[in-house]
């Protein structure tokens, strides 16, 4: 009896050793090759192209107003090596999709490279601009990444422009996001409002909850693992101040999920294919011509969706989000189409830079896949008109999948007097029509 037990134990230890060795080899190899390539994330944030490694270290532009909470300005320790064999590294990576050892060592406050073009340093913005409500939703976020998001906003946003930060906890389960987070938020007292959902709503409905509590002129949606850069908000607000029907996005820089290195992204525009998968695309050369050069706002057919600014009244006027979409996914393309087809404009503002952690998902999430499919179908049947057949050419298996009642969204489209999807193809994104029937 004892012999079989001992053999089982030996097999178990051997199996564990092999798995640990394979994991070590994977992560060690991944770190060595991180400078060569940017892996695709499981989320909508994949840049789908290498990011230039050279960083433009221009002079920093001084912000006239002194940001609040000076006591948060202690610099963190620099990024260093970490022990790959630490079990906490593996468990943290699979739990959060990022390196928690580095995240912890970096702390909640650090300086990141100013990745703006030099011409942006020469720009000056009016002192009187619309105020902003920053809305950050999170679910089971790594606490240091969340607090870095908050502290970067607080320290790099002029206080007279920052109406509030609305933090929406979408029913997180981790202990450090409960009482411990409450205690740490004391450092942000007076500027952060914390809302805790009593049930899991998903990103889309959580953002609607945050927007309902906002009082600023402009809603700025941020992801919960971001770091804003120098003079990030003023370029966004100044465009909206000129035209409240314009929605704006910053250039989204990459924060490596393994090393937390902050890397500049190229100037790109947001697009999608006939499967409605978002992707970044090159900007036409003529759009960078003229006196503004690489500081010129870029017309974008779509937004990534995680980070953008919109006038609060306009957000309500155009129908906010489709509240019957689940979790997240597809809402970025849906609101992009709605903005363009219903009289608005969507621009990427190169002089505004926000870093985002490209988290690595260890395995496909079936609940998210189901939600994204349903969300895409609601989008397709509401906005694509006869071109929905192009979507089904690429995804024929989705024709019979239920997607709920869209009568309210169809009525919204009629009420707003929105243009056809053909108009969108002709006027905003003709490159998509050129790919018809290609698979």
TrEMBL record:
Its main location: membrane. It is found in: Endomembrane system. Residues 133-315 form the Glycosyltransferase 2-like domain. It is a single-pass type II membrane protein. CDD domains: pp-GalNAc-T. One of its GO terms (biological process) is spermatid development. SUPFAM superfamilies: Nucleotide-diphospho-sugar transferases. The keyword Glycoprotein applies. One of its GO terms (cellular component) is Golgi apparatus. Signal peptide: none annotated. Its cofactor is Mn(2+). Belongs to the glycosyltransferase 2 family. GalNAc-T subfamily. This is Polypeptide N-acetylgalactosaminyltransferase like 5. It comes from Oryctolagus cuniculus.
């Amino acid at each position: 009896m004892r012999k079989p037990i001992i053999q089982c134990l030996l097999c178990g230890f051997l199996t564990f050793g092999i798995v640990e060795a394979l994991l070590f080899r994977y992560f060690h190899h991944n770190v060595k090759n991180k400078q060569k390539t940017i892996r695709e994330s499981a989320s909508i944030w994949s840049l789908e192209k290498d990011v230039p490694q050279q960083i433009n270290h221009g002079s920093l532009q001084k912000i006239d107003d002194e940001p609040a909470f000076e006591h948060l300005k202690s610099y963190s320790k620099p990024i260093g090596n970490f022990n790959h064999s630490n079990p906490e590294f593996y468990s943290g990576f699979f739990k959060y999709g990022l390196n928690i050892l580095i995240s912890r060592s970096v702390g909640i406050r650090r300086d990141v490279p100013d990745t703006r073009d030099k011409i942006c340093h020469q720009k000056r913005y009016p002192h009187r601009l619309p105020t902003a409500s920053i809305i950050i939703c999170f679910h089971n976020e790594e606490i240091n990444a969340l607090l870095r998001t908050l502290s970067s906003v607080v320290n790099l946003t002029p206080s007279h422009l920052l109406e509030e930060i609305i933090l929406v906890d979408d029913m997180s389960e981790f202990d450090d996001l409960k009482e411990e987070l409450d205690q740490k938020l004391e450092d942000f007292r007076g500027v952060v409002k914390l809302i805790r959902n009593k049930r899991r709503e998903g990103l889309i409905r959580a953002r609607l909850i945050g927007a309902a509590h906002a009082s600023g002129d402009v809603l700025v949606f941020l992801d919960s693992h971001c770091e804003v850069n120098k003079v990030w908000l003023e370029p966004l607000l100044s465009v909206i101040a000129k035209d409240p029907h314009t929605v704006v996005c910053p250039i989204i820089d990459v924060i490596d999920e393994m090393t937390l290195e902050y890397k500049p992204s190229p100037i790109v525009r947001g697009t999608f294919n006939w499967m409605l998968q978002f992707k970044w695309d090159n900007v036409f050369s003529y759009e960078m011509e003229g006196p503004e050069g690489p500081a010129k706002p870029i017309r974008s057919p779509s937004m990534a969706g995680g980070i953008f600014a919109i006038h609060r009244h306009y957000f309500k006027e155009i129908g906010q989000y489709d509240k019957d979409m689940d979790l997240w996914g597809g809402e970025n393309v849906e609101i992009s189409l709605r903005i363009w087809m219903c009289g608005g404009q969507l621009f990427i503002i190169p002089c505004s830079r926000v870093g985002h952690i490209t988290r690595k998902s260890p395995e496909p999430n079936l609940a998210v896949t189901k939600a994204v499919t349903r969300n895409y179908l609601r989008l397709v049947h509401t906005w694509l008109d006869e071109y929905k057949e192009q979507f089904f050419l690429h995804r024929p298996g989705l024709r019979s999948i239920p997607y709920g009642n869209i009568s309210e969204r169809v009525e919204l489209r009629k009420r707003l007097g929105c243009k056809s999807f053909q108009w969108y193809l002709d006027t905003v994104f003709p490159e998509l029509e050129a790919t018809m029937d290609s698979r």
